[in-house]
TrEMBL record, chain A:
It comes from Shewanella metallivivens. Signal peptide: none annotated. This is ABC transporter permease subunit. Keywords: Membrane, Transmembrane, Transmembrane helix. The chain crosses the membrane at residues 31-49, 86-109, 130-157, 163-192, 204-222, 251-272.
UniProtKB/TrEMBL annotation, chain B:
Gene3D superfamilies: P-loop containing nucleotide triphosphate hydrolases. This is ABC transporter ATP-binding protein. The keyword Transport applies. Residues 4-231 form the ABC transporter domain. PROSITE patterns: ABC_TRANSPORTER_1 (PS00211), ABC_TRANSPORTER_2 (PS50893). Keywords: ATP-binding, Nucleotide-binding, Transport. The keyword Disulfide bond does not apply.
């Protein structure tokens, strides 16, 4: 008989996160989702991003936007050191959170339905399981962000090799920003998938929740304009303001998603502790 | 320290009182049987012990620790009812991951997964996915996962339900073989099976603890269960009552008598019974020292 010491809670989180990452990239359904994701981004990179960045670099575009939206309204769009990243940023800010709702929708629901979580909770604490799965989903999304950024860099280099270093530094900042943007979405999906019976149901819950909360906040703001800060409770509320930012400037908005993540994870942890498995 | 200690333990579901004020203390050692009709609260008690659900009232400790606590990781394991492995990954990879979570290195975890699969005769199915296994094989895989790391306590909820006789026997043998180092708590409807494996029996009914008895407990009286083939049962009854040391003879079923008698060191009563049967030319099917678990619980 071999006696072993169970790893610490933190080690369990690491092991669970690593296993989630491996699961996503080794099973058939995970690979299909990954291929679909890559195809969408390949189309985005080859058509809108490539052609739009060429358009942005044209001399008439800036005066056109100033005439249309007013002077300075999109000035940060022209401050990107590499034009392709300006368009990538616009697309990624909306697409990655949307992907997050679907990619991270099955953190617990299927396993809870078939009882697989019971095998795990005999070996790890519920807290480790909750945070480990969440961390795993963040690792998966970080991999996808890095993958799309590398593809964008490759596309930039086909146009101008001298943009390698600016592309790399820009990518690093975009990566950090996008990672922070998807944090509350992933946390919300962890919470919803604990309650849902399937990944599909968790995604539907997310869509309903986002729509309902937006409507309620809109109504409250209409009745009580002094409560305009209320919309900050909704994940993604800062995204529209982040469009016209770039580089370190975008990080100024990071406290909002970070705070949302802490609150949602706290709620999810409580639900996990109290749930019947 | 008690293996399992329940104090005023109750569990209410919205429409049902599943466990009602259970007070129970079980010690480590021979396998323990958890018996009761459907809906008696056996699976609820198992779920509480594993920390899957929380009690509504009362307290529960395992080796002095609350269910689900860090101290019980790798110490307590279970075959949960209706729990399935992830259908997308091989059995070996999932068992290996469980072993890693218990503290095994990658290489040792692989060996451990194969070891426990070999225990349930499924080493050749290690690379199969759970979907490709029959119900019985899935059950054996779930039992294998409960044996990873040789835990001190293993809770088996209906371990042989759905298994063919050969595999059910194999599982019973595993429990016997491992019971020196591991205390098994087994829930089952199969009293014959529990009788072969267990000493202590916990009987639940309608959420209440009806009995907690030891099958092998030392008492002043002993029992012989006599199962007959064709004979004059009424006449046999009278003849048995007339034997020395016999206190009571109770008919149990069409062909069976349970004889209660004063404990004795020799085989005097058995010899008297065999002589009687020979003299009357009555053919017997079985003579069992003691009572069946069914008799013990329900007589």
């Amino acid at each position: 008989m071999q006696h072993v010491t169970p790893p610490s809670g933190l080690s369990h989180i690491g092991l669970l996160a690593k296993y989630e990452l491996t699961k996503r990239f080794t099973n058939k359904s995970g690979m299909v989702a990954l291929i679909a994701f890559m195809l969408i981004w390949a189309i985005l990179l080859l058509y809108p991003i490539k052609s739009a960045s060429e358009f942005i670099m044209g001399p008439n575009f800036r005066s056109f936007t100033e005439a249309l939206f007013g002077p300075g309204s999109l000035q940060h769009l022209f401050e990107w050191p590499v034009a392709e990243f300006a368009v990538f940023w616009l697309a990624a800010l909306y697409l990655f959170p949307m992907f997050s709702i679907f990619i991270a929708a099955d953190q617990f629901s299927s396993d809870k339905q078939r009882g697989s979580l019971r095998f795990l909770t005999l070996r790890v604490s519920r807290g480790s399981l909750f945070f480990g799965r969440f961390a795993g989903q963040m690792l998966i999304q970080l991999s996808l962000i890095i993958l799309t950024l590398l593809a964008t860099i490759a596309m930039v280099l086909t146009r101008d090799m001298s943009l390698f270093i600016p592309s790399l530094t820009t990518s690093l900042l975009v990566m950090v920003n996008l990672f922070i943007v998807v944090l509350p979405y992933t946390a919300a999906m962890a919470l919803l998938s604990l309650h849902a019976n399937s990944a599909r149901q968790a995604s539907i819950f997310a869509i309903i929740l986002w729509a309902l909360v937006s409507i309620i906040i809109g109504l409250i703001n209409f009745k009580f304009p002094q409560l305009s800060g209320l919309n900050m409770i909704l994940p993604g509320s800062q995204i529209s303001s982040m469009i016209n930012t770039q580089g370190l400037g975008s990080l100024a908005y990071s406290p909002i998603p970070l705070l949302q993540t802490v609150v949602i994870l706290g709620l999810g942890y409580l639900l996990m502790k109290r749930s019947a498995l | 320290m008690s293996l399992i200690q329940c104090n005023n333990l109750s569990k209410h579901y919205p429409n049902k009182l599943a466990l009602d004020n259970i007070n129970l203390s079980l010690d480590a050692g021979a396998p323990i049987a958890l018996v009761g009709p459907n809906g008696a609260g056996k699976t609820t008690l198992f779920s509480l012990l594993c920390g899957y659900i929380q009690p509504t009232q009362g307290s529960l400790t395992i080796l002095g620790h609350a269910p689900g606590s860090k101290a019980l990781q790798g110490v307590l394991s279970a075959l949960p009812q209706d729990a399935e492995l992830d259908p997308h990954f091989t059995i070996a990879s999932q068992l290996q991951f469980f072993a890693t979570l218990q503290g095994f290195s990658q290489a040792d975890a692989k060996q451990e997964a194969l070891r426990v699969l070999a225990l349930v005769d499924l080493a050749e199915s290690a690379q199969a996915k759970p979907k490709s296994l029959s119900h019985g094989m899935s059950k054996r895989v779930s039992i294998a996962q409960a044996l990873i790391g040789s835990p001190s306590i293993v809770l088996l909820d209906e371990p042989t339900a759905g298994l063919d006789p050969a595999n059910a026997k194999k599982i019973r043998q595993i429990v016997k073989d491992l019971s020196n180092d591991t205390t098994f708590l087994i829930s089952s409807h199969n009293l014959d099976e529990l009788e072969k494996l267990c000493d202590q029996v916990v009987y639940l009914e309608q959420g209440k603890l009806q009995q907690s008895v030891s099958i092998k407990a030392s008492q002043a009286t002993d029992f012989i269960t006599l199962t007959m083939q064709v004979c004059d049962m009424d006449s046999l009854h009278q003849q048995l009552l007339g034997l020395n040391q016999v206190i009571e003879v109770k008919r149990s079923g069409d062909e069976q008598y349970v004889i209660e008698y004063q404990k004795q060191r020799n085989f005097e009563l058995e010899q008297q019974i065999l002589s009687l049967l020979a003299e009357k030319q009555w053919r017997y099917k079985a003579i069992l020292k003691g009572r069946t678990l069914e008799e013990t619980l329900f007589s």
